[in-house]
Structure formats: C-alpha cells, structure tokens
C-alpha cells in the first residue's frame, strides 16, 4: 500500500483518476495484443488478485491471455531464492535458479473458452516461448 501511495503521490482514494490511469485493466481495448501475465502468489507489493483481475478483463474482451500464478514467488522474477543465506551467493534470478517452479495457469485463446491448467512449470523459457510464438503468429508486431 505504501509503494502505491509513493507512486501515485497519495492513496488511490485521494488520486482516483491517477490510480485509474496507472491500472492496466483500464487500458484493455479492442487493439490489445496477446498478454502473458506472470505473478508470484507470495507477492507483498502487488497481490495476485490484481493479476487475476487483469486476466479476467482481457478474457472478457475476447483477447488472448495467459496467466501464471507462480507458487511462493514474491514481487519480480529477479528476487533471490529464499534458500540463499546471502543473495550474493546465488546471483541468478530466482526464476532462472528455480526453472521448475510450479504454477497454476489459466489460458484464454482469442474467441475461445478459458482453459485451466495446474502443475505447469514457469521459467524464463516460458517468457521466451511466448514472445517467439506471439511474434511468429503476429507479423505486424515485428
């Protein structure tokens, strides 16, 4: 909450228009590209319900979206592994250091029903595969 206030210069209640402009949900429109949303379930800065709400807004607009909720991860993929006594001991980003991180996955294909997948792995290859696939199927995005 404090980081949101610092970002907005006040609470969302005090700065409703600025909060609205900062929210990706209010920018979903008919020209939305495919989305890959990856969120840690232990994120203390941005609750995973925000990622779920964004996914649902994109899906409701009949756009393609994939949501990975990564078990036990906090904010950002570059956080150190919780097993490291000293983060400098393991300089790899956690998502790279733990390439078999379990995730619950929701997929919405353009104009199709949502699919729910459980026990899928999340890694930097997931991100790479998304970009390669998206650019291959959407030449205008190149």
How is this structure best described in words?
The chain is α+β, with helices and mostly antiparallel strands and 142 residues long. The protein is built from five helices and four strands, in the order H-H-E-H-E-H-E-E-H. Strands 1-2-3-4 form a four-stranded mixed sheet, with helices on both faces. A hairpin with a 5-residue loop joins strand 3 and strand 4 (114-122). The protein is flat and about 40 Å long. The protein starts with a helix and ends in a 5-residue tail after the last helix.
| Number of separate helices | 5
- Unreliable stretches, pLDDT < 50, 5 or more residues? none
Broad structural category: alpha+beta
Q: What is the CA-based Rg, rounded?
A: 17 Å
Helix content: 25-40%
> What is the terminal separation in angstroms?
37 Å
Shape, principal axes of CA atoms: flat
In spatial order, strands of the major sheet run 1-2-3-4
Largest sheet: 4 strands, mixed
What portion of residues belong to β-strands?
15-25%
What are the defining features of this structure?
flat, 142 residues, alpha+beta, four-stranded mixed sheet
């Amino acid at each position: 909450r404090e980081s949101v206030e610092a970002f907005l210069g006040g609470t969302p209640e005090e700065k409703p228009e600025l909060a609205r402009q900062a929210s990706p949900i209010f920018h979903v429109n008919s020209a939305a590209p495919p989305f890959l949303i990856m969120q840690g379930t232990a994120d203390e800065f941005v609750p995973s319900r925000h990622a779920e709400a964004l996914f649902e807004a994109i899906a409701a607009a009949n756009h393609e979206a994939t949501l990975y909720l990564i078990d036990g991860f906090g904010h950002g993929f570059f956080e150190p592994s919780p097993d490291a006594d000293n983060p400098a001991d393991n300089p790899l980003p956690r998502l790279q250091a733990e390439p078999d991180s379990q995730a619950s996955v929701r997929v919405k294909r353009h104009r199709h029903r949502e699919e729910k997948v459980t026990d899928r792995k999340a890694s930097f290859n997931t991100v790479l595969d998304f970009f390669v696939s998206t650019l291959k199927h959407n030449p205008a995005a190149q």
